[in-house]
Write a structure and sequence with these properties.
With 239 residues, the protein is of the alpha/beta class. It has a single domain (46-70, 86-236), classed as Rossmann fold (3-Layer(aba) Sandwich), CATH 3.40.50. Helix content is 33%, strand content 27%. The protein has helices at residues 59-66, 89-99, 115-125, 130-143, 159-171, 189-206, 217-221; strands spanning 15-28, 31-44, 48-51, 74-79, 82-83, 100-103, 177-181, 209-213, 225-230, 233-236. Helix 3 (115-125) runs parallel beside helix 5 (159-171) and helix 4 crosses helix 5 (159-171). It is globular and about 50 Å long. The two termini are 25 Å apart. The mean pLDDT is 92.
Length: 239
């Protein structure tokens, strides 16, 4: 089955990521709840996509599956023509490190470490030499506007600053795809708007595709496309 939502004009190049007939259920109270039944979704290079909808419909589950953080029960994930089902956990970890960036509602930064140390980490894990990782991390912190705070520990930064550092960390490996789960769900309106603008600026300047789960209709409206999940399938969302 094909992705039922329209392709954005000018962003029709070969898809960066395709989800085909994805299904996922969870055991709950002795029964199984089928959260995703038949998800078909194609994400184009450079595209921005919002996943919207009520709490509990499976947005985070879908995002985790798209990011290979969680395994689907059925279906396939194709990344630039390569079937990820063939990858073992070690290869997937390497793949995620190089190709995917993640931002969550709660930043998941290491609070006892500095902004710079946190940002460098994916590059170091990816095998970069320390000085190079440091230089790239500083570049990214500049890019998201918190380079002056690079030596501060995370727990000494504001919520907005922490989320900027999380973005810098997500982007240090120059991923093809940035996946964000309610990235501003924890920020006040002013900081949310700043981070929204920044996300779109980064998408434009760095060219990565962007998939954002959000309750924020302003942010959803800024995206190329909006989808939601109805009875375990992807449909276009009207907002
Ligand atoms: N690990 C899990 N174990 C059991 N149930 C889960 C698990 N993860 C999610 N669910 C259930 O799946 C449904 C969808 O969850 P989720 O993807 O987090 O929704 P959303 O992000 O749209 O709020 C919910 O009913 C949730 O309780
Ligand atoms: Mg969620």
């Amino acid at each position: 089955m094909v992705d039922p939502t329209p392709v954005v004009p000018g962003k029709k190049e070969s898809p960066i990521l395709e989800a085909i007939a994805i299904a996922k259920s969870f055991a709950y109270d002795g029964a199984r709840i089928e959260v995703l039944r038949n998800v078909n979704l194609s994400i184009a290079k450079g595209e921005t996509l919002a996943i919207v909808g009520a709490s509990g419909i499976g947005k985070s589950t879908l995002l985790h599956i798209l990011g290979t953080l969680e395994k689907a029960d059925r279906g396939k994930l194709i990344f630039r023509g390569r079937d990820l089902s063939d990858y073992d956990e070690k290869r997937l970890a390497r793949f995620r490190n190089l190709k995917m960036g993640f931002v969550f509602q709660f930043h998941h930064l290491l609070t006892e470490f500095t902004a710079l140390e946190n940002t460098m980490l994916p590059a170091l894990i990816g095998g970069a030499e320390k000085e190079r990782a440091r230089a790239t991390a500083i570049e990214m912190l500049e890019r998201v506007g918190v380079a002056d705070k690079q030596d501060r520990r995370i727990n000494r930064l504001s919520g907005g600053e922490q989320q900027r550092v999380a973005l810098a960390r997500a982007l240090i490996q120059r991923p093809d795809l940035l996946l964000a789960d309610e990235p501003t769900g924890n920020l006040d309106r002013r900081n949310s708007q700043r981070v929204h603008r920044l996300l779109l600026e980064l998408n434009r300047d760095l060219g990565m595709s962007l998939v954002v789960v959000t309750h924020n209709l302003e942010l959803a409206a800024m995206m190329d496309r909006r989808v939601t999940i109805v009875e375990g399938e992807i449909v276009s969302a009207e907002i």
